[in-house]
Amino acid sequence: MSMREVFQRELSEVQERLVDLSESVTEIMEKASIAFLNSDVKKADEAIALAEVNEERALAIDEMAIRILSRQSPVARDLRVLVSALRISASLERMGALAGHIATIARFRYPESAVPETLRKTFSEMGALDCALGRKLTQLLRNTDVDLARSIQAEDERVDELHRSVFDLVLSEKWKENAIYTVDVTLASRYHERFADHVVDISAKVAYLTTGEWSELEA
Amino acid sequence: MSMREVFQRELSEVQERLVDLSESVTEIMEKASIAFLNSDVKKADEAIALAEVNEERALAIDEMAIRILSRQSPVARDLRVLVSALRISASLERMGALAGHIATIARFRYPESAVPETLRKTFSEMGALDCALGRKLTQLLRNTDVDLARSIQAEDERVDELHRSVFDLVLSEKWKENAIYTVDVTLASRYHERFADHVVDISAKVAYLTTGEWSELEA
């Protein structure tokens, strides 16, 4: 096998592992969202455990990317693909941690619910959007030719809108819940919003991998 | 000049820029902390403006690191130093954004204060600790031989303790403030805590640069 073939094979493995990581992050968010909405402590524990594994797997991808950089000394596009892989794995690691935080809120409030009735619909939609974004991200990482950028953008905007609506409600006269609820929904809303932000960040990096126009997308 | 000399000079420039970025991040936190504690809207605006510049400067460092990787194809320790630089600049970018968020909370609540009297002392200490951590980080990046790891660890633990104490108070019977205060202090406390976390993350990476024991520190 030529150096080039070895490199391409190694790069494919990095990509496969990022796809796996993205699938696992989506699974963590699915479990966390159910745990949060239904006070499902079993799902919460599963999400928290998976988030820990997720962190280790992200670090393993980083080590692999650095090993390839070291052995192959890639330049130009190949180099940028690997640097992107490092950034994508860092984002996926944070996404797993954020989903884990949502599960932890559910865990702490068990057997009570962390979600007041007035916000159930909002968080249900936010959770569903984050899971949908996770699945689109996996698809995008699996096949960088896919054009999902527009729908990812639209879904992230909707998550931002819901995030603001949580604050609008909490800061309005209508909000009668106690401080525990206020803290829980404030943080949970923030975690959902950051999760979606990371999907947008990663999709910009994946788009670059296709177009090669790094600085334009970073700007 | 030999390739090696060029590389060393370029590496020094990356380091200098990281030192500058760390100084700027500390300045943003200093302004944000004053803005937050004293409802100082001028300081808030300065912090928010600096946070935007900070983001651009972090991206410029990344571009420089990638250019060096591309031209020099470093291996072994040199390669890991550059990959660390990319990670450190990503953390410094987030730290600037977090400090900017604290300033934004002060901005939104102006002319009222976002800090209730019962938490003034706590946030004053948290802000001072974050600024001290920022200054230590600058020192560490300037001279990687400095042993600050222990004091950074201790200060981060104190920030975590204060962060928990904010939640303990807010979730206790004693908390009589309205939801606006609850939201503001919940998020502000979280931002202070994440800022300190990043300092710990970066200091582990800087420590690696001295010892060369990457995987040990990443574990």
Brief write-up:
Chain A has 219 residues and is mostly helical. Helices cover 86% and strands 0% of the residues of chain A.
Polypeptide structure, described:
The structure is a homodimer of 219-residue chains. The first copy, chain A, has helices at 3-38, 41-72, 76-109, 117-142, 149-170, 179-211, 214-218. Chain A has 219 residues and is mostly helical. In chain A, helix 4 packs antiparallel against helix 5. Chain A is elongated, with a radius of gyration of 19 Å. The termini of chain A are far apart. The model of chain A is unreliable at 212-219 (pLDDT under 50). Chain A binds chain B through residues 59, 62-63, 66, 69-71, 73-76, 79-80, 83, 86-87, 90, 167, 170-171, 175, 177, 179-180, 182-183, 186-187, 190, 215, 218-219, and chain B through 59, 62-63, 66, 69-70, 73-76, 79-80, 83, 86-87, 90, 167, 170-171, 175, 177, 179-180, 182-183, 186-187, 190, 215, 218.
